[in-house]
């Protein structure tokens, strides 16, 4: 069965976006040749790596609905990660909510207006009220 093998982040300001993701998740960015493209290393173990490219066209409107794929990042402590997003200039798009038997999920926006998810695994997460 086909599985995702790579993701890309589109950014109006690639350096600002790289700083955001480095601050929040510790990801590493390396320029790939002469092209305006950066390879993203998200760490060791399970998961995928990605790329960062300059955005072609306008950024998403602040009130735009989710469009495209949402990448969700596994985090050990969602509350801490939400604080890091805020400190790095990101915003909350969808508050922390339980996913029964899976964990706690929140959606955020990075400094470029892109939506991403963060999930703290917790098999004891209750059904939403």
List the helices and strands and how they pair.
Elements: E1 6-11, H1 14-25, E2 28-31, E3 38-41, E4 49-54, E5 72-74, H2 78-87, E6 91-99, E7 103-109, E8 115-121
Parallel strand pairs: 1-4, 5-8
Antiparallel strand pairs: 2-3, 3-4, 6-7, 7-8
Tell me briefly what this model is.
By secondary structure, the chain is α/β, with parallel strands linked by helices. It has helices at residues 14-25, 78-87; strands spanning 6-11, 28-31, 38-41, 49-54, 72-74, 91-99, 103-109, 115-121. β2 (28-31) and β3 form a beta hairpin.
β-strand percent reads 35-45%
Shape: globular
Rg over C-alpha atoms, rounded to the nearest angstrom: 15 Å
Reading side by side through the largest sheet, how are the strands ordered? 1-4-3-2
Order of helices and strands: EHEEEEHEEE
Explain the overall architecture.
This protein has helices at 14-25, 78-87, and strands spanning 6-11, 28-31, 38-41, 49-54, 72-74, 91-99, 103-109, 115-121. Strands 1-4-3-2 form a four-stranded mixed sheet, with helices on one face. It has a four-stranded mixed sheet with strand order 5-8-7-6, with helices on one face. It is of the alpha/beta class. The protein contains two helices and eight strands. Helices cover 17% and strands 36% of the residues. The longest helix is centred in the N-terminal third of the chain and has 12 residues, at 14-25.
């Amino acid at each position: 069965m086909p599985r995702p093998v790579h993701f890309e982040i589109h950014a109006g300001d690639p350096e600002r976006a790289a700083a955001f993701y480095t601050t929040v998740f510790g990801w590493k960015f390396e320029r790939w040749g002469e092209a305006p493209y950066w390879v993203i290393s998200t760490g060791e173990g399970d998961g995928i790596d990605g790329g960062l490219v300059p955005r072609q066209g306008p950024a998403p409107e602040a009130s735009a609905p989710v469009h495209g794929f949402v990448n969700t990042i596994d985090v050990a402590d969602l509350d801490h990660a939400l604080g890091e997003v805020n400190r790095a200039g990101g915003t909350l798009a969808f508050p922390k909510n339980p996913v029964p038997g899976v964990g706690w999920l929140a959606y955020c926006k990075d400094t470029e207006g892109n939506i991403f998810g963060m999930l703290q695994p917790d098999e004891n997460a209750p059904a939403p009220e």
